[in-house]
Amino acid sequence: MTLEFAPFIPWLVIAILAVLATLLATLGFLRGLRGTAIRFTASLAVLAALANPLLLQEERDPLTTVVPVIVDRSQSQQIAGRAAQTDEALEGLRERLARFPNLEPRIVEVTDPGDSDAPSTKLFEALQTATADVPPARVGGAIFLTDGQVHDLPPDTQPLPFSAPIHALITGKAGEFDRRIEILRAPRFGIVDEEQELTFRVFDDGEPSNQPADVAVKMNGEDLGTVSALPGAETSYAFKVPRGGNNVLEFAVAGTPGEVTDVNNRAIHLIEGIRQNLRVLLVSGEPHAGERAWRNLLKSDASVDLVHFTILRPPEKQDGTPINELSLIAFPTRELFVEKINDFDLIIFDRYQHRGVLPILYYDYIAEYVKNGGALLIAAGPEHASQDSIALTPLESVLPAAPTGEVHQAGFYPRLSEQGKRHPVTRGLDGSNVEPPQWGRWFRSVDVGDAAGETVMTADEGRPLLVLNRAEQGRVAMLLSDQGWLWARGFEGGGPHVSLYRRIAHWLMKEPELEEEALRARAQGRTLEVTRQTIGDAPGPATITTPSGESIALNLSEIQPGLYRGERRMTETGLFTVANGDFSTLVHVGAVDAPEFRAMVSTTETLAPISTESKGLTTRLDDGDQSIRIPDILPVRGEVRVADDRRMLIRLTDETVLKGVNTLPLFAGFAGLGILLLAVSAMWWREGR
């Protein structure tokens, strides 16, 4: 209840009247006039009435005390039974808080932000959001329901947003143990077949181990062996990049009994293989119009070191001219095909025939080079159907087809076979999607018998034109026509000779993008894209195994012949396994060093200092008996000065809301003032008589 004034006239006028009344009263006292005290008292009463004093009484209702309950639903809360503990504890908290009608719980569930590549648990950010619309005095405390892995702790110099206890109920079990592996330093690029080095570390969170851990290493799915690593110490690993393009290096540390999760027992590193220089040996059997097409293509590629020889003086053209008088360079056959043959990534025989330039034994060396992983391309002309064909040498053991001895001389459109429409070497060549193809004709092809491998292009009447095959570890391609130069010259509009020749060369050199059967996966943000390449039937759905162990079927749709693709947005982040048939691959969604996966054991140490400072309680929910224990809630009035080690104290707010104001005029307004003036006048009149 308060006293206020609502004067009928300005305060200045009241002050002047008060001064006049005081002067008159002083004069009366000095002269000794009878009734001066009464008249002065009556004047003061009139002035008080003019000031209109009011007695105000406010009607207020107490406000509820806000208690935010921040529930951690991050990925680390989905392991080791923590989700069930969280659900049970949340239900218990709802029941306990409901017993106090003056408490207003605010349940905030903190999930992994779907647009973040580096997920983390930000409970204090959620707390600030939950209390942004209420004054700090109304917040009676906060309760965190988490495993203790919080990544947005306020710094020591930053005060808490309110002066009330902060409690933490920790899921999980005491003494948890987890082993994980992280790649610390690694190159993003590496030159093919040159040694690279990276550094990784095995961590033991919880009780440390002094025993070495076995780490299995794989490169592109192939086992590279096992490395012994001491937990906590940096371990170096040397490796060679086996191929150009994307390479996946996988490290998997052996799990230990009792660890909370094996999600972080694997780590991958993507390294882009760069071929320093592709060494290509091009041997032309004789000068012809088509050899320059191959030479120009290979010379235009800055990453190719080309060694080109053209046989200008075969043995049958001996005319008796002394060797020292010839301007021709002698063909270094022994150096190329014996001493340095393994230095070449690709050997091309362009219209080459066996005429005694190469000893017959050298063809066997070339065949062994292919079987051991080399690449060979035969660009054949009429000589391939002759009695001097290199198909009649020991090289025949790696060739996919043998010539019949016939050469077809007729115009035809090179066409893609059914396999060729699906094969990455020829799929989608410009002009191939119409009939007849939108490119120029060729006029000669070499006939062969049954071809092994894949016939991806055909000549007239379906005869093989381009045949691709594997010979043990190596690869062989046969182009059974020397008319590709017509496309290069623009005859009848030309054709995609550059794309075709380059793809053939890159397939021979085992570029991953041109593999007939391949499964690839990549992540763009949270979206996982799976691509399946096949020359067979539809591969069916892919199976995605998430870091938490859930299996998800992903349907793959055909976007081009032999190319299937599907994508899905992932709710989790981490290392995913994608499988389809006999193929599998790994892909990491999100940042590889995301805070959410650095440590996954539950802990009380993270939030205990904040709870201690705010007079709160940090305790584990697990009571060791297959159940949980939720501390009682104790509301208290006034500032919390001492923490309770068994109960969660909630500071009740003194805040109220104004509902209304009752006003009582002490002089009853103008009516009271009139009565008072009438009484004073009557008294004055009476004294005057």
From TrEMBL:
<feature type="transmembrane region" description="Helical">
    <location>
        <begin position="6"/>
        <end position="30"/>
    </location>
</feature>
<dbReference type="InterPro" id="IPR029062">
    <property type="entry name" value="Class_I_gatase-like"/>
</dbReference>
<keyword id="KW-0472">Membrane</keyword>
<protein>
    <recommendedName>
        <fullName>Glutamine amidotransferase domain-containing protein</fullName>
    </recommendedName>
</protein>
<keyword id="KW-0812">Transmembrane</keyword>
<feature type="transmembrane region" description="Helical">
    <location>
        <begin position="664"/>
        <end position="685"/>
    </location>
</feature>
<keyword id="KW-1133">Transmembrane helix</keyword>
